[in-house]
Amino acid sequence: MTASHRIVAAPCWAPLLAALHEESFVHPGDEAWSAKAFAGLLEAPACFAVVAETVDGPAGLALFRVAAGEAEVLTIGVRPADRSAGIGAGLLGAGLAECARRGAHEVLLEVAAGNAAAQSLYRRRGFVEVGRRRRYYRDGSDALVLSLGLTGGVSTPA
């Protein structure tokens, strides 16, 4: 499935981002990020989002923050109906390119230790594990801290 990617940084996108996030992540008992939370993040000049759009409409989102030469992947998610079609890889690639354009030299993220699909996506892109946060998530699971170096817009292992 082909998707186009749009870089967005205005709070007016917050309702769409919140809806995509909820559809991509929320299980019974989980708390979705609200439109207000997304709007607050997008009001900061350091944050931006990438929205993947297919012929069927919005398919996924990624949210990044860039400051002082370092970037962070805050969240990335794809609607269940659009998974396994390269949408996540496209979102990550578009976001990393924008991070490099904004002056980031390194990108960090946290991923659940049990999320093999996400770990595979990040490792294929060159992210390496640099730490572990014990019992980081609400369910008590660990988070792996991954890092990727960026040089001239090209990802390099950290």
Automatic annotation (TrEMBL):
<protein>
    <submittedName>
        <fullName>GNAT family N-acetyltransferase</fullName>
    </submittedName>
</protein>
<dbReference type="InterPro" id="IPR016181">
    <property type="entry name" value="Acyl_CoA_acyltransferase"/>
</dbReference>
<dbReference type="GO" id="GO:0016747">
    <property type="term" value="F:acyltransferase activity, transferring groups other than amino-acyl groups"/>
</dbReference>
<keyword id="KW-0012">Acyltransferase</keyword>
<dbReference type="Pfam" id="PF00583">
    <property type="entry name" value="Acetyltransf_1"/>
</dbReference>
<dbReference type="InterPro" id="IPR050832">
    <property type="entry name" value="Bact_Acetyltransf"/>
</dbReference>
<keyword id="KW-0808">Transferase</keyword>
<feature type="domain" description="N-acetyltransferase">
    <location>
        <begin position="3"/>
        <end position="151"/>
    </location>
</feature>
<dbReference type="InterPro" id="IPR000182">
    <property type="entry name" value="GNAT_dom"/>
</dbReference>
